[in-house]
Amino acid sequence: MGLLKNLPKVDKFVNNKAFEELSKQLITSISKDTINQYRQDILDEKIQDFTQDDIINDVLKKYQDITKPSLQKVINATGIIVHTNLGRSLINPDSFDRAKKVATSYNNLEYSLQEGKRGERYEHIVSTLQALTGCEDAVVVNNNASAVFLILNTFAKNKEVVVSRGELVEIGGSFRVPEVMSQSGAKLKEIGTTNKTHLRDYENAIDEDTSMLMKVHKSNYSIEGFTSEVSYEEIIKVAQEHDVIDYYDMGSGHMIDLPYNLDLSEPSLIKYMKHKPSLLSFSGDKLLGSVQAGIIVGKKELIAKIKKNQLLRMLRVDKITLAILEDNLTSYLKGQTQDIPTLKMLHEDVKTLEQRANTLKQSIEDICKCEVIKTQSLIGGGTTPNKKIPTIALTLEYKDYKANKIEKLLRKQNLIIRIENEKVLIDFRSIQEHEIKEIQEIIRGVFN
């Protein structure tokens, strides 16, 4: 019972000088809980002795843990460029700075500077997308899943949408095409088989209830062997002949040629726009290399109907997203694709990666056993499924530590690596050049 008498009164305790610069309300709440926990531990005979400084330090630690940002910067040393768990595409700092000027000032988000009256927020990216793709009009929502839902709800509510069975995909977060269709009010009409769908399947499926022929990009898997699918160009032609809408959910559509023959498995937005499709949608933060967004391009009369859908107000993007997206699209328009970090990493020469790996090796090989190796990595983000690209990695060993232990130690310092064949790999395909010095300091700090 003597220890209980030593517990401080909360109202006096919170006035300690150690808490002067901190939130009084939060300190009071934490102090109450901490002192109550000390009281319970004393009664349970878990504590034999303590000082007031012990309680102060416990309160300060809890305060720091609570107020520390949960969303933090990490170094992506996995080699996966579009890493969904690590925020997908990087934003160019210059693009962000330009967007910051807009976001921290009043701006013409929905105001026409030419006409001096209310304008439309989507106008800021439409002209750029028209110049890039040849589309008639465009609209942007918060991600491609929203784009899919909005398009189906606008044009196929209580109507049939024809989709190949081989394209009824499920992507991350249990996002399933059939369930999205159901939620949107559209009626799914499956055609073909899992491995084979023919043009005649689309033609035979069209009747008076058909609203749309939909193609879905197989973003996270591939079907190989005895297979066949109908090209989007052929679907467009059939749709036009039967006066129905054609729509391609492209997933991670890209605008420039990709290295390592990746164009063979990843659809090109520019390629398909030449065929005058009804509607296309794709993600902003995958191979486009911009912010999270769902971009819809297509025929003007169809985009106009989408803009009238009341759901658009719930799914629309804000000024920061539009500012960064416009800046990135302008880089494409100017041919300055080196300003898009995702594309820069994807096109980085293997020799350059090897030089960077050797630089890091030379700076840490006195404390760790390491070796520069040639290997392969995936792009990630549901793009180019099962297609690997060449990369350079640095293996890392320390004493008798197992790979999982090293991974955990580095992860605590926000350095995210990958383990391959029970070896720790620091993959340079996804590492920024300015991060090499930071990685060196992390490794030396962990193992010294």
UniProtKB/TrEMBL annotation:
<protein>
    <recommendedName>
        <fullName>L-seryl-tRNA(Sec) selenium transferase</fullName>
        <ecNumber>2.9.1.1</ecNumber>
    </recommendedName>
</protein>
<dbReference type="InterPro" id="IPR004534">
    <property type="entry name" value="SelA_trans"/>
</dbReference>
<dbReference type="InterPro" id="IPR018319">
    <property type="entry name" value="SelA-like"/>
</dbReference>
<dbReference type="InterPro" id="IPR015424">
    <property type="entry name" value="PyrdxlP-dep_Trfase"/>
</dbReference>
<keyword id="KW-0963">Cytoplasm</keyword>
<comment type="function">
    <text>Converts seryl-tRNA(Sec) to selenocysteinyl-tRNA(Sec) required for selenoprotein biosynthesis.</text>
</comment>
<keyword id="KW-0808">Transferase</keyword>
<keyword id="KW-0663">Pyridoxal phosphate</keyword>
<comment type="pathway">
    <text>Aminoacyl-tRNA biosynthesis; selenocysteinyl-tRNA(Sec) biosynthesis; selenocysteinyl-tRNA(Sec) from L-seryl-tRNA(Sec) (bacterial route): step 1/1.</text>
</comment>
<keyword id="KW-0648">Protein biosynthesis</keyword>
<dbReference type="InterPro" id="IPR015421">
    <property type="entry name" value="PyrdxlP-dep_Trfase_major"/>
</dbReference>
<keyword id="KW-0711">Selenium</keyword>
<comment type="similarity">
    <text>Belongs to the SelA family.</text>
</comment>
<dbReference type="GO" id="GO:0004125">
    <property type="term" value="F:L-seryl-tRNA(Sec) selenium transferase activity"/>
</dbReference>
<feature type="modified residue" description="N6-(pyridoxal phosphate)lysine">
    <location>
        <position position="286"/>
    </location>
</feature>
<dbReference type="Pfam" id="PF03841">
    <property type="entry name" value="SelA"/>
</dbReference>
